[in-house]
Write a structure and sequence with these properties.
TIM Barrel, binds zinc ion, about 450 residues, globular, 2 domains
């Protein structure tokens, strides 16, 4: 594979920023030092640019219009080098057979290294397979506390039981935390009263019901002594519940997503079905609280919840599916927040790369530019002005949630294991190079995350 020298850039890694060169040999970081004079097979001039560990996106859904092949492509264009996909085992299917088929397919078609989360739609029947799934390298398992009408909801009996099984198997629980039965009642009441479905959407999924479910999941995880990861935290008051558990030393990790940091329920009124996501977009005070929580360490990670769909503003809102394309714009949007002083660049790297690697046990192979680590990096031009437009995105979704938004900063090169995947917008990687990553989720003490 040979050698690559990334020269003259500013490396931001492990809470520090330094003017150093990065020498890569055979896919691994060999040296990080100032003024490396080595003849390399290829030298990348990073003068005036940032060199960051590649983004690790631990929340992706490769089962809609972006699949196991195309999701990594759009993500890599945005500086992502590793993805952890949700592999949903639908009722009537086995957990291990689902994980196997995701793994086999991704190894064939993906350009990015990947891990998997198991998704339990029927824990009563599927939880028994958790030890076998852990033996296959999958250690994080998601359940839904909501979507009761869709038949996806796990009740408290099965949630408690599964967290107990997870602790014994050495796994980590994950929940979509919203109170499903309360939401279903509110939705029925709104439908009966013929409330506009867009208005009803926010009203039927209030922050109080997210905070309640977060608190309930944390309580059960405490009793089970099982680590818990909360994807897509969207409400300030949910964050308060998380913070209290963490102060007590409980292993509760919290994620938010770029959409909750950059959009609000006012955008939903305008873009309607395009921004139908769960939990819903909240108000501006929540949005600001998420940035503060991210900066202060109350939230550990930002991940995309990329679930690309074909949707139009005028679609029937009630019938429209949940989800939006997010992976390609995530680094740009978080960086844009950093430029506005909402968090430091050092912290940005931690929440996008180092912390996800630590929480899922991929560190220091991933999530840092340290000798011996995989050479997964992104060269980022922090001064370039960019306009986000659907026509320049690489997702197969029919839109971007950020059409016309101007941001500062754009990735110019994405490298994984020493191989250039994307350079100045050109895709270089071929499918079939991906490696499956066995995770070891939930082992790190929350106080060791910074
Ligand atoms: Zn999701």
């Amino acid at each position: 594979m040979g050698t690559v020298l990334v020269a003259g850039g500013t490396v931001i890694d492990r809470g520090r920023r330094s003017q150093v060169d990065v020498l890569v040999r055979d896919g691994k970081i060999e040296r990080v030092a100032a003024g490396i004079r080595a003849s390399a097979d290829r030298t990348i001039d990073a003068t005036g640019l940032y060199v960051l560990p590649g983004v690790i996106d631990v929340h992706t859904h490769p089962v809609y219009v972006d699949d196991l092949a195309s999701l990594p492509v759009t993500a890599a264009h945005g500086g992502v080098t590793t993805v952890v996909h949700y592999a949903y085992a639908k009722p009537g299917t086995g957990l291990v057979e689902t994980l196997r088929s995701f793994r086999e397919e991704a190894e064939r078609v993906s350009i990015l290294d990947f891990g998997l989360h198991g998704g339990l739609f029927d824990p009563k029947r599927q939880s028994g397979e958790i030890p076998a799934a852990v033996a296959c390298g999958v250690t994080s398992f998601k359940m839904f506390m909501t979507y009761a009408k869709l038949g996806w909801m796990t009740d408290d009996y099965q949630l408690m039981r599964t967290l107990d099984l997870l602790r014994r198997a050495g796994g980590m629980g994950m929940v979509h935390a919203e109170n499903g039965l309360a939401t279903d009642y509110l939705e029925d009441a709104c439908n009966e009263a013929k409330v506009d479905p867009v208005d009803a959407f926010v009203r039927t999924r209030p922050a109080a019901l997210e905070a309640e479910a977060v608190g309930r999941a944390i309580a059960m995880a405490e009793v089970a002594q099982c680590p818990l990861y909360l994807p897509h935290v969207s409400a300030a008051r949910a964050l308060d519940v998380v913070a209290a558990a963490r102060r007590a030393g409980q292993r509760v990790y919290a994620e938010t997503c770029p959409q909750y940091l950059t959009l609000t329920n006012r955008d939903l009124l305008e873009k309607k079905a395009l921004l139908k996501i769960g939990p819903p977009l909240r108000d501006d005070a929540d949005r600001k609280a998420l940035w503060s929580g991210l900066a202060a360490g109350a939230l550990d990670t930002v991940a995309s919840d990329h679930a690309a769909k074909d949707k139009r503003v005028e679609d029937d809102f009630f019938a429209a599916p949940f989800g939006s394309p997010q992976a390609e714009t995530m680094l740009q949007l978080v960086h844009d927040g950093a430029v506005r002083g909402l968090l430091s660049l050092e912290r940005m790297v931690r929440v996008l790369s180092e912390n996800p690697a630590r929480i899922f046990g991929l560190y220091p192979m991933k999530g840092t530019l340290t000798p011996g680590s995989d050479a997964d990096l992104v060269v980022f031009d922090a001064r370039a002005r960019a306009r986000i437009e659907h026509r320049t995105q690489h997702s197969r979704a029919s839109y971007t949630a950020y059409e016309g938004r101007d941001v500062v900063g754009t990735p110019v090169l994405t490298m994984q294991r020493g191989e250039i995947l994307v350079e100045r917008g050109e895709l270089r990687a071929k499918p079939g190079r991906a490696r499956f990553l066995a995770t070891q989720a939930g082992r790190i003490d929350v106080r060791e995350l910074s």
